């Protein structure tokens, strides 16, 4: 029995060596941009464009006098699509695909083009092919700039105060500070850090909400001044504008008012 069992095992082993077993399908999260199986192409460079701007897709480093250049595009939502084809030695202009006919300005000297009024749907992989063989892969990331940063109070539980930071655009990270320093670790953050719960005993300060993205930083201030004016439960204190110099007057210090720093303006800077 042992000899027969060993012989069968050896036979099955040799048989398996001659059978082509197809490789396992890749995980769903690594499927390529064409929407089926396969590996996502590794880009030669990653570029960033802002929604609504005009973006220049780079062509060749030197002007060309012969050969052909082709541009193609694909994304998760869109299968491979042609953008333009151009023969450098031709007296005829580039052949631009209908979907891009009114959106691009093509430069015949080096094969680059400007994509006008960039949209979120333009995000994806761009292929630049020379003479059907040399391929350059560009991964374009399209972002919407952070804007309209606004901090305002909302009713809180018990005696706490809630400050909410609202904004538009692609913000990656929200940072709160009080009088120029990070808020204490014990303070509660909610709604993906957009809402800060402030103890009423700690409220008389200048609070700042900063929105960070990979491209820029924007912020806005909110000032809570002096002792809190007695009010009914969950009723917000009155709102008053800052003086032109941004400092509270002695009269204002005798009251507790929520003061928006909108009069002083929001802050913005590049990262």
UniProtKB/TrEMBL annotation:
Boundaries of every Ig-like domain copy: 145-211
Entry's localization field: Membrane
Protein name: Uncharacterized protein LOC117364691 isoform X4
Organism: Geotrypetes seraphini
Gene: LOC117364691
Cellular component terms per the entry's GO annotation: cell-cell junction; membrane
Taxonomic lineage of the native organism: Eukaryota, Metazoa, Chordata, Craniata, Vertebrata
Source domain of life: Eukaryota
Signal peptide (UniProt feature, chain positions): 1-26
UniProtKB keywords: Glycoprotein, Membrane, Signal
InterPro entries in the cross-refs: CD2/SLAM_rcpt, Ig-like_dom, Ig-like_dom_sf, Ig-like_fold
Region (Disordered): 228-255
């Amino acid at each position: 029995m042992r000899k027969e069992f060993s012989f069968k095992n050896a036979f099955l082993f040799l048989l398996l060596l001659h059978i082509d077993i197809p490789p396992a399908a890749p995980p769903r999260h690594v499927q390529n941009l064409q929407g089926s199986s396969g590996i996502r192409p590794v880009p030669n460079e990653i570029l960033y464009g802002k929604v609504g701007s005009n973006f220049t897709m780079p062509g060749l480093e030197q002007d060309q006098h012969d050969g052909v250049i082709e541009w193609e595009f694909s994304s998760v939502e869109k299968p491979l699509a042609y953008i333009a084809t151009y023969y450098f030695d031709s007296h005829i202009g580039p052949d631009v695909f209908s979907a891009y006919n009114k959106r691009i300005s093509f430069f015949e000297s080096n094969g680059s083009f400007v994509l006008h009024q960039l949209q979120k749907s333009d995000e994806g992989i761009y292929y630049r092919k020379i003479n059907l063989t040399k391929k350059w892969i560009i991964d374009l990331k399209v972002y919407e700039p952070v804007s309209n940063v606004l901090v305002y109070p909302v009713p809180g539980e018990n005696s706490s105060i809630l400050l909410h930071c609202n904004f538009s655009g692609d913000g990656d990270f929200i940072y709160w500070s009080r009088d120029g320093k990070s808020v204490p670790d014990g303070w509660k953050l909610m709604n993906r850090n957009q809402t800060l719960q402030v103890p009423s005993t700690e409220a008389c300060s200048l609070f700042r909400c900063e929105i960070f993205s990979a491209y820029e930083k924007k912020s806005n201030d909110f000032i809570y001044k002096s002792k809190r004016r007695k009010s009914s439960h969950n009723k917000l204190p009155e709102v008053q504008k800052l003086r032109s110099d941004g400092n509270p007057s002695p009269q204002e210090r005798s009251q507790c008012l929520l003061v928006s720093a909108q009069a002083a303006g929001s802050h913005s800077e590049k990262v």
